[in-house]
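Troubleshooting: if your tokenizer reports a length mismatch, compare your output against this known-good record of 465 residues.
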Amino acid sequence: MRSRRLLPLLLIALLGSRALAQVRPTPEQVAAWPITWSALGLRPDDSKRVTQRLVDPNARAALLAELKADPAKHTHRLLAAMFGSLVSVMGSELPNRAAIAIGLSESYGELARAVRATPGMPTEARVAFGRSHVRFLKDHVLVQELARFGQASRLLDRLAPAAGLKSAAGGKGVIDWQVPARVDPRRLAPGKLDTVITSLESSLRHVEGKEQARCKQANRCRLVEARGTFSPAFVAKQRKELVAADATLKKAVTWGVGGVSRLVEMELYNAFVWPKNAVRTDRLLAKLDRVDLSTAKPLWEVNRKGLELHRVGATLRLDATFETTIDNPAVLDAVKSSIEELWRGKLSARSSIELRTNVSFRRLAAGEAFSEGSLRLVEGNKNCATQGQISLCRVFSNTTPAHEFSHILGNRDAYRTFHDPRTRSFVHVQDRRTLMGSLDAPLSQRELVAGVRNLVRRDQQPRPR
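Known-good structure output:
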């Protein structure tokens, strides 16, 4: 664990020499900020209003009273607003954003201490605010992590063109859709229990390392070719290694475009807003057999709007109709191929009934709203699914749509993510025998059956807009 005496130096290195000069924002200043990040049903305007109350000393007593009266409603909502405001500020063009973020972190830390000190405050609120304070607000850990995210994002933006990821028209830092090849189920193979350890720091260093290796090999090639004294075979070998270095860098950048954002918008967000018991990585790795990777319990009730199941002889046909704002035909074809190829097969070894899935799309016109409760496919900052909606970022694998469609049908992930505050890392324990635990594995028959069962046993419910 880093010495606390080194933290000011680390903040200066990450954020600049003026980083430790705090700016304690006022509600009036917050009103002028670009609060763009929101979650838990909070629209950006709602997040801004909550943030204004969070930084207002005169509103603290009322906030504590509301939290004490209804912790289930307010605990995670307030933590989400804190997280969203810090992400928005650190990702903005505000000239003193680092100082503002540190001022926010101090204000939020004071509120967290007040929550814990309030007599009669429910345990749920005390524990959540206490954990987030100790792990992320104290010593400005969350600000440091968001600074690393900014570094990684700028690096990826710079490397994207060199890695062959073309920029989309009209967007700074926005790449074009990277459409994967059509999925071939024969190439998918089940694995076994596995772990992956990620962090913002290691992700940044990984991409930097691949760039340095590529530059080193490019310089070597130029030197070899310029001197003209090396054998043709040696020159050809160096060129071949440069091609390999280019491919490795492109793979690292392609992963980073989606993976680094996911670390912030899912893993770091969940660890801050829904803080669970902390783990020590070494102890967790020694007891992997105790990790519950069960997917038996449905994720949510499945809404049947947009999903129709028909029996035609020995075939059970599942028709899925998505409304979508994505107008790239290649992307829609990749989504259709992924779901149709992987969501098919016999429902049991003894049964002759076989599932077939058919996917179609209704593209919305510019400005047209989604139908109420419709099954939706949209572009997002990360690949994920909510109840009745698949979000795809511009980099996705050919099995991603089928994985997210499985969530639509109520199937859970066959992996679990744990946070180690000591190392600021996330440990992902994966059941690589199934698509729900690994994108390199096929969908298991168990999940095929579970998805159909979840669909047919749920009455149609109105899906929230």
